[in-house]
Specification:
Helix content is 76%, strand content 0%. It has 98 residues and is mainly α. It has one domain. Helix 1 runs antiparallel to helix 2, helix 1 packs parallel to helix 3 and helix 2 runs antiparallel to helix 3.
Amino acid sequence: MNPLIALALAWAAGAGLGLFYFGGLWLTVRKLTTRYSVPLFLASFVARTAVVVVGFYFVMGNRWERALVCLVGFIMVRQLLVSRLRSEPGAPAREESA
């Protein structure tokens, strides 16, 4: 396979893993008002981390370049989600009624 294509696929996999991890984190934090907040948070953390570590392992394929590009895609998605989901500065926190 062309090395450039392999790196592009590694970046896309990193972006997908980032979307899974940080999207799952966002959903988990929104559900923390439930009675089972701590078990929910811990189970979500373990599941998300396990999926991402295994994903990085398979994407890497014994090539550090792929791991690095995958990490770049992962962090880019984090930055994108933080900028999109951040509330406006100075705005009061939203309260959701149950």
